[in-house]
Amino acid sequence: MVSKKFDFVSALALILTSFYVIYGSIDIYQQAKEPMYLSPALMPLTLGVLLLFCSLLLLAASLKGSNPGERWAEFRQWWDAVKKEESTKSMFIGTIIIGLYTYVLLPLVPFVVSTSIFLLVLMAYLKVGSKGKIIIISAATVAIVFGLFQGLFHVPLP
What we know:
The chain is mostly helical. It has helices at about 5-30, 40-60, 70-85, 85-110, 110-125, 130-150.
């Protein structure tokens, strides 16, 4: 029998998302001060309501033959196993490194420096090769990207 734990959790996440969309569209409607049929809130509100409806259908289908407690217990058991895997830890730390690059390094440091630091740290964490190889690959990548976009295509970089 196929487990419905992912349908259950996805339905809950989509219900929360639909509430967010509906709330946001009501806020748009209030700011627009136009009739609903002319308001830019009409489409997001319609999509939010449809998403809520479909999410409730998915939730009902996922609970067929079970109850929310059982589905949540199944999901928790799966999640506890996933958290223990080394690949999950690597992915999580890699995501943090990418976030730091995007939201901390790029706004504060010039592109060439921030991208070089990012590539060096990420490749060192993933143990891609020797230190010399990592330095050469990082420098070459930044030089090629900078040369192509800045020099050849005249595209401004952050």
